[in-house]
Design goal:
By secondary structure, the protein is of the alpha+beta class. About 45% of the residues lie in helices and about 15% in strands.
């Protein structure tokens, strides 16, 4: 069968086979890298789970419906009730690293910024046997997702500056109104 081909056809056939083989090798390498990433991710999650279990933390991972990690700097949160005060929640934002992945300064800065912008609010969920009632309704609380957990957040500084400007304007208006309310003293012409 190969004798029916001309030398040019044989060369073209060989080039096609070599290209297909090179593509298969590349695909195999890519799949191996993907498998390695998945294995490292699973190992890092399991390591965090076992650490949390040993140190009495709870862990929640942020994943998509398929189990793939979500975009963003926060991969998981760990939390527990404070040992000193049962009404205080100790919460940590976690970025998972696995395999040979390094930690960059930009990632640390991004994670710190995310921790300053954490929105905290309260909610009571009451189940009466038939339906779940939320008090207050999350949609009815104005600005419910805008309350930062810490007093050092960028939003607090902006709000404080806005309050300061409002106070200054109010005092200026009050001063002008007070000046206008003063009785006018008419003097006799000279």
């Amino acid at each position: 069968m190969s004798s029916d081909r001309t030398p040019g056809q044989k060369a073209a056939f060989t080039r096609k086979r070599r290209a297909a083989a090179a593509k298969a090798v590349t695909t195999r390498k890519r799949l191996n890298a993907f498998d390695k990433v998945r294995a490292n991710e699973a190992a890092s999650k399991e390591a965090l789970r076992s650490y949390c279990e040993a140190h009495k933390w709870r862990v929640a991972f942020f994943e998509g419906k398929t189990g793939a990690p979500r975009t963003g700097i926060i991969d998981a949160i760990i939390f527990r009730i404070s040992k000193q005060n049962a009404d205080v929640l100790d919460l940590r934002l976690v970025q998972l690293k696995g395999g040979r992945a390094g930690i960059s300064g930009a990632e640390i800065a991004r994670l710190k910024k995310a921790s300053e912008a954490v929105a905290v609010n309260w909610l009571i969920a009451a189940f009466d046997g038939e339906s779940l009632h939320l008090v207050p309704e999350p949609e009815q609380v104005p600005g419910s997702a805008k309350v930062p957990a810490k007093g050092k957040g960028k939003h607090d500084r902006r709000a404080a500056a806005l309050d300061a400007w409002k106070t200054i304007r109010r005092k200026r208006v009050e001063a002008v109104e007070a000046a206008l309310m003063q009785p006018v003293i008419e003097s006799e012409p000279l």
